[in-house]
Amino acid sequence: MAAVTVRDLLNDAVLTGHRLIGGADGLTHVIRDAALVSTDELNRLPSGAVAVMDISTTRGLSRQHLVEQVLLRVHHRGGRMLIVVGNLEDPPQSIIRLADRLNLPVVAVQGPSPAAVAAHVMAVAQQPELAYARVLGIAARKLTTADSIDRILSIVGGVLHASVALVAADGAVIAGGLLHLRPETIDWSSGAIIDSVPSHVLAALPIHGADGQMWLACEAAHGGPAWQDTARTLLQVATLAVAAWLARQRLAAERDRTRLHGMFTELLQLDPRQGVPEPLAAQAATLGVALDGWHVGLHLTWHRDSLPDSNGQATATLTRALATEELDTALITRADGWSLWKTSATRSTSADIDHLVDQLRRCICYYNAAGHTPLVGGVGQPAAGPSAIPETVHQAQRAARAIATTGQPGAVSFVGDLGAHHLLAQVYGEPAFRAYAQQLLAPVLKAPDSAALLLTLTAYLGNSCSPTQTAKAICVHRNTVAERIARIEHLLTTPLKKTDQLALQLACRSLSPATDVAGP
Amino acid sequence: MKIDSDDVADLAAGATLLGSGGGGDTATVALMLQHTLTRLGPVHLIEAMELFPRAMVAPIAATGSITLLSERLPAGHEFQHAVTTLGQTLGTPVSALMGFEVGGANALFAVAAAAWTGLPLIDADGMGRAFPRIDQVTFNAAGLSATPAVLADPLGNHMVIAQSRDNGDAERMLRAAMPSLGGWAATAIYPMQAAQAARHAITGSIRGALALGRLLRAAQRHRSERAAMQAEFDAELLFSGGILQVLRHARPRTGGTVTIEHRRDSRRTLRVEVGEEYRLAIDDGRVVAAVPDIICVLDALTWQPISAEHIAPGREVDVLKLPAPVHWTLPQARDLVSPPAFGLTLLDEDLGGPIAWLR
C-alpha cells in the first residue's frame, strides 16, 4: 500500500466540506501520525504528524491569529499539515502567505469533533492498509448485489468520494458524470489510466468484454497515492459488476430488438382497410412505440457502396447520437441501414420537417465523426395512422438511397425535395444501365483525357448545354469547354444536338463520381 | 513649565503617535486648543509633588465618541461644570487637573480643560498611551476608585456616577450614559489626592508627548532625523512594506486584521490585529509586539501616523513599536491591558517567554 499523503487525507470523508486555506505545495507530504494540539501542548506534536487544532472552544474575539502562531510551531516541529476545526471565517492573506511560504497545508473544516478527526487521521496515517481494506470490503459486498449502473456508480463514488462515470471510447458519457474533466479530451486507448494533476485526480479502467470501448472512470478533486491504490483495486471489482450489468442490458436490448422487428414486419403487412390487430397494438405498447398520430419516417443508410461496420458498436453509437437529438425512438435494424419514425399529435409543418432534417444531419455528423462507415439519411412525408408508418418509412428509405448515390457523406434528404435526377439516379445506379452507359460512351472513355471529357460532358448536359455555365461549374475557360465538346462530338461521330441527350446525361451520371456540376 | 499655543502642534503629533492608531482624531481638537491657548493664555504644567499632598486632583478626559465630538464641538463650559460638580460632590474643591489618556485627543483636552478651568495641569496621565476603556488606567491597578465621576455634556446636563462596585462597573455605567449625553461627555473621574497621583500616575507623560511630537515632526520633515527619534524613544522598526489587505470585523465588533507585505521579501507578511487601536503584530507567525506595546503604523513616505480607522490597502507603511510604559509591566497592572484583556489569546511562550529560538 502506498504511503498516505495530505492529498489522500483531503479526499477522506472526515474532511468533507473542507477549505484548503494555503500551503498547496505541501499536498504531497507523507503523513505518519496525528495529534490534537492545544495552545500549551504543541511540544507533544510528533514529527511527520498532522496537527488538529480546535478553535471552536477558543475564548476571545479573534482566533485566526492563533492559527498563524500554531502554524509556525507545527512547521518547526516537523509537522506535515494543520487541520483547523471550527469557524475560521475569512482567512486573511497573512495566513495564506505563511502557509504557502512554509509549504504546510492548512485546512479548515467545520462540523466534526476535533478528537474524532485526530483519531481518524491517526488511524489512516498509522495503518493505512487496515483503514482502506475495511472500506474496500464493504464496497465489494455492496457491488455484488448492485443491479443498476446508477447503484454501481453510487457505491464507487461513495467510497472514493469522487464523481464516477461510465464513458465510451469516443468520450460520450453513458451514465453518471465527471467533475470537471471533459471525457472527449482523454486518450482512452491505453490500459488503466491514473492521472494526477494539482486540480484533480483521475482513475479509469476499461470494462471487461467491451472491446476497450467502455470505461469506468472516477475523478476526485483530491487523492494521493493511497487513494489511487484504493481506486485501482475498487475499479477492478466494480468493472466486473459493470460488465455483468452490461451483459444483462445487451440481453434485454436483443430481446427488444427481436420484438421490434416482429412488430415492424407485421406493420408492413398491415391491411389499411382493417384496424390494428389487438396483439400488435399490445406489443407496440409494451415496446413503447406509438402507432396512432402523425408519423414521419426516417432512414439511415451507408454512403454509396460503402460496406457496413463490422464492429458491433455502430448501433450503440447511432442510438447515442439519436438520443442527443431527442430522436431516441425505436430503432429498427434493416438490411441497408436503420429505420425509425417520429410520432406527433399533429401534422408536421414544413418548418418541423426542416428541423427534423437538421436533427438527423447532426446525428449522422456525430456518428460519422466516431469513425464508423459514413451514413446518409432520408426523411419521409408526414402520414397519419398505423397503416401509414410503412409508407413514410419507405419514402425515407428511397430518399436515403437517392442521396447515398449522389450526395456527400452526412447528407440528409427529404423525399419531397428529391429532384427528377435523384429519382432517376436509382435507375442509372443499376448494373445493367452502367453496362449500357459504358457502351454508349465507349469512344470518350477510351480517350487519354477521358476523365476531363466525361466531367465536361456531364456538366455541359446538366447546364442546358451552356458553355458559359459549364465553364463556371467546372472552373475552366469557356473556350476549353467549347474545345472539349467539339472533341466529344468528334469521338461520338455526331453532334450532341442530334443525340438522345437524356440517355447521354444518365449515362454520364452512371459513370461519373458524384458531383455538383449538374446545375440547378 | 508652561504650555502655550506654539506647543500644540508638537503635542498633537506626539499624542497621535501614542494613540497607537486610536484615541481619536487630534486635528480638530488641536485647532480648538490653539484657539483656546491664544485666547486664555498658557497652561501651567506642574508636578504632583509640588501640590499639598492632600490636595484634590481630577484626571480629565472626553469620553465617548471622538468622531461625534468633531460634529458637536465642546464649548469649554462642560469641562468646567464637570470639575466644579466633582468638587461639590466630594465637598473639596479640585486643586489641579491631570491627564487621563495621553494618547490621542484626550492629551489635548487635558490642556484645554486646564485653560478653561484656570487650574494647573499635572504632568502625568493614567494610560501612557491610548486604551478604549476607563478601567484600563494605572489608577485602577493601584486600587483607586473611578467614582465619584462626573459626566457633563455641551447642553448643560450633568451626570454623577456616585459609586460603583468596581471600576469595570463604572465603565459599563459610563458607556450606558453616552447615548443620552449625545455621544460624548466631558468627564472628571478617578478623583485622588496629590500624593496618590504622584505615586500611581505615569508621570512626565505630557512632557514626553511634547518631546516625542517634536522629534516626530522633525523626522517627518527630514528622513535623516528618523533614526534620532527611534534612538531617543527606543522605537523599534518592526516592518516596512505595503498594505496588502484590510479585513474589517462585522458589526458590532470594531477593528479587524491588516496584512502587510514586506517591501523586500514579498513572501513575508506582518499581521496586525486591530481593535480601537493596533493591538498585536505577528511577523510570519511570530508575535513581535502586543499590547501594551505601542504599535504605530506610519506612512512610509511622510511618516504621518495612520489611524486604525483610516488604514487601507495599497499604502506603503513603516510599523514602529514604542515600548509600553513601565507601569504596565508590573504584575498587578499587566492583566488589565495584556492581549487576553482584549480577547486575544496567545501561546504561552508568547506571553513573556523567550521566542527567539523560533527564528
Explained architecture:
Chain B: InterPro entries: S-Me-THD-like_C, S-Me-THD_C_sf, S-Me-THD_N, S-Me-THD_N_sf. The complex is a heterodimer of chains A (520) and B (359). Helix content of chain A is 47%, strand content 16%. Chain A is of the alpha+beta class and 520 residues long. In chain A, the strands form three sheets. In chain A, strands 11, 12, 13, 14, 15 and 16 form a six-stranded mixed sheet that branches. In chain A, α3 links the parallel β4 and β5. In chain A, α2 packs parallel to α3, α13 packs across α18 and α16 packs across α17. The C terminus of chain A is likely disordered. In chain B, α2 packs parallel to α5. In chain B, the strands form three sheets. In chain B, strands 1, 2, 3, 4, 5, 7, 8, 9 and 10 form a nine-stranded mixed sheet that branches. The C terminus of chain B is likely disordered. Chain B has 359 residues and is of the alpha+beta class. In chain B, β15 and β16 form a beta hairpin.
Report the C-alpha radius of gyration of chain A, rounded: 34 Å
Fold-level CATH name of the largest domain in chain A: Alpha-Beta Plaits
- How much strand content do the residues of chain A show? 15-25%
- Secondary structure tally, helices of chain B: 11
Strand content of chain B: 25-35%
Q: What oligomeric assembly is this protein in?
A: heterodimer
Shape, per Cα inertia axes of chain B: globular
Short description:
The complex is a heterodimer of chains A (520) and B (359). Chain A has 18 helices and 16 strands. By secondary structure, chain A is an alpha+beta fold.
